[in-house]
Design a protein that fits this description.
Blueprint (H helix, E strand, L loop, with lengths): L1 E2 L2 E2 L10 H5 L5 H4 L2 H4 L2 H13 L10 H25 L6 H10 L12 H14 L3 H26 L2 H12 L2 H7 L5 H17 L3 H17 L6 H9 L5 H36 L9 H11 L12 H10 L1 H17 L7 H19 L6 H5 L3 H17 L5 H24 L5 H8 L4 E3 L2 H8 L19 H5 L4 E4 L9 H8 L4 E4 L3 H11 L7 H15 L1 E6 H8 L1
Parallel strand pairs: 3-4
Antiparallel strand pairs: 1-2, 4-6, 5-6
Helix pairs in contact: 4-8, 4-9, 5-6, 5-7, 5-23, 7-8, 7-12, 8-9, 8-10, 8-11, 9-20, 9-21, 11-12, 12-14, 13-18, 16-17, 17-20, 18-20, 20-21, 26-27
Length: about 575
């Protein structure tokens, strides 16, 4: 029975404990293992279908996806060449052969944006499946499916099946989560490891479990350094059972040791590689992990604060997952606030509050790298848990019809998500046709890193300043080197004089690439939204979505002449 906002504990729970007073945990003897996990099987099938359907034909649309694919390609290529050199009987010592092989002829570029964990996962996938876009996207897809399973487990542990099941379904059909589960970006795998760490910390009863959770938090950070807010979340969760200052220092030391362990291991690998390079007289001018973190911090200083853009998260969620999910989330926030209004606190409640509120509050006013929705995706499992908590509370108002109300609401939300999922999953790729037209020629692109994955970095504007094609003045320098220009969705994120120029010119090739749903996601990635300004973004989306969903090939020199 539910009174007010407080969910009554099961009979087996002690009302004097925080878990008994606030949570509705699963009776392990009653539900474990089959009854607890049977409901998640069809949910995982659903999550797998929407994430893997047509993944091999999925277009690579995001600028950063090309960057990460280049890093994974480099590590896979270097590993293959080093292994071949080690097995060969060429001149020099085995160490010299390995070092020279890793330096010369490798594809892609060394990791340089402080997310080496993700590059390692991409490299492993490419070594197993080949250096394809599918191998890169599969890492994100599997991580996305795993995050759905972990979200279910957290919900089951903290609040019972009537929260766990809706939360897992909502995450499985989430348009926002689907975007990051089908692009080789860092968000899906970093989020998977962070959510798994939260589950382990929730279940931990001793130092070993706490250390394992901290280790996974470190792995998550190595994949995505935007998870730097995790220490605040951990501290908030620790308030559930205050261990005293001495205990806090002891537990904090243990968590810190676990967190930095994978980071130290990665830096040590860089230092060994640099020492090897110096010993064998090969180039060592790449950045090690510490240098990458320092460079990333300088590139993204804490001065991008926009308090007027606080509605961005709510607009993103409404447009990508529906107004119904947003409404349930608002109810869930109220339920959660009621549950934590007085002590003792349940650890699951504080973990939910911290994991949701910290990234949403932080990134609602501050952006690193101008990718807004990408920041908010780090809270998605907790958003869906809070929404499910709100749904469970609303359904409980109906008494004996509670279960059917939950089933009905989730079914309606899933039905409403079908068009969005179809638009994301069925987006065509025009890259094969454009590559055939390019042939052996060099070509520039409005998305150089992505094109470089297919052509090679020596044949396109993949790196540094020339990779950014933003204004008409950027075209003449490119025309001196590249006879062709590929224009994709990236060009229409900031539509203006250049896109007007493209629309007036006649392309050599024009083929469908992406969809209006992907273009909307791309816009939400890059735009903060002040109060009342969401109509401006939707106007831009409607005006440009058709053009943005085409991949075009132009004669670059003719384009420059027409613009002059």
């Amino acid at each position: 029975m539910i009174r007010g906002f407080a969910i009554s504990p099961p009979a087996s729970a002690s009302p004097s404990t925080a878990e008994g007073r606030h949570a509705n945990p699963v009776d392990a003897k009653k539900y474990w293992p089959w009854r607890a996990w049977a409901p998640v099987i069809p949910i995982l099938v659903l999550a797998a279908v929407v994430r893997l359907w047509g993944l091999g034909a999925q277009p690579v649309l995001d600028f950063d996806s090309g960057v990460y694919l280049g890093e994974g390609t480099f590590l896979a290529s270097a590993t293959q060449r080093a292994t071949a050199a080690l097995a060969s009987s060429g001149p020099g010592t085995p160490l010299e052969r390995v070092a020279l092989a890793a330096q010369n002829g490798t594809e892609g570029h060394p990791p340089d944006i402080a997310k080496p964990g993700h590059a390692i996962l991409l490299a492993i996938s490419m070594l197993l499946l080949g250096k394809t876009a599918f191998a890169g996207a599969l890492v994100s897809a599997l991580a996305g499916i795993g995050t759905v399973a972990v979200t279910y487990a957290i919900g089951l542990r903290g609040w019972g099946p009537r929260v766990a099941i809706p939360a897992a379904v909502l995450l499985a059909i989430s348009g926002e989560h689907l975007v990051y589960s089908r692009e080789p970006l860092v968000e899906a795998d970093g989020l998977f490891f962070a959510t798994l760490a939260a589950l382990i910390s929730l279940r931990a009863r001793g130092a070993r479990g706490l250390f394992a959770a901290a280790l996974l938090w470190g792995v998550a950070f190595s994949c995505n350094n935007r998870l730097s807010f995790l220490p605040v979340v951990v501290f908030l969760a620790e308030l559930a059972s205050w261990p005293g200052w001495r205990g806090l220092i002891r537990r904090g030391t243990l968590i810190t040791a676990g967190f930095v362990s994978p980071l130290v291991a990665i830096e040590a690998a860089y230092l060994v590689a640099r020492a090897t390079g110096r010993a064998t007289s090969v180039r060592t001018d790449w950045l090690d992990y510490v240098q990458q973190l320092a460079t990333f911090s300088r590139m993204n200083p804490p001065d991008r604060v926009r308090f007027d853009e606080w509605p961005t998260f709510f607009v993103d969620l409404a447009l990508m997952d529906g107004v119904g999910v947003l409404a349930l989330l608002l109810v869930g926030i109220a339920v959660l606030a009621w549950r934590v209004r007085a002590r003792p606190w349940a650890r699951a409640d504080l973990l939910l509050a911290g994991s949701f509120l910290v990234p949403v509050v932080l990134y609602s006013v501050y952006s690193t790298g101008e990718v807004r929705m990408r920041h908010f995706s780090l809270a998605l499992p907790w958003v869906m848990l809070a929404a499910a908590l709100g749904l469970q509370w609303l359904a409980a108002r109906l008494g004996r019809y509670e279960r059917w109300a939950i089933v009905g609401a989730v079914t309606v939300l899933a039905g409403l998500a079908v068009p969005r999922i179809a638009a994301l999953d069925s987006a065509p790729s025009g890259m094969p046709a454009v590559l055939e037209a390019i042939g052996a020629q060099n070509a520039a692109s409005t998305n150089g890193p992505v094109l470089s994955f297919y052509l090679g970095e020596a044949r396109t504007n993949a790196r540094l300043r020339e990779a950014f094609v933003n204004v008409p003045a950027d075209l003449p320098p490119l025309a001196e080197t590249y006879p062709l220009l590929v224009v994709d969705m990236q060009a229409y994120v900031f539509a203006g004089d250049l896109t007007d120029l493209y629309s007036r010119a006649t392309p050599l090739v024009s083929v469908p690439n992406g969809s209006d749903a992907w273009y909307l996601a791309d816009l939400l990635e890059h735009y903060g939204i002040p109060w009342g300004a969401w109509d401006d973004l939707l106007t831009k989306w409607r005006a440009q979505s058709q053009a943005a969903s085409q991949l075009r090939l132009y004669d670059l020199r003719a384009l420059v002449r027409s613009g002059g």
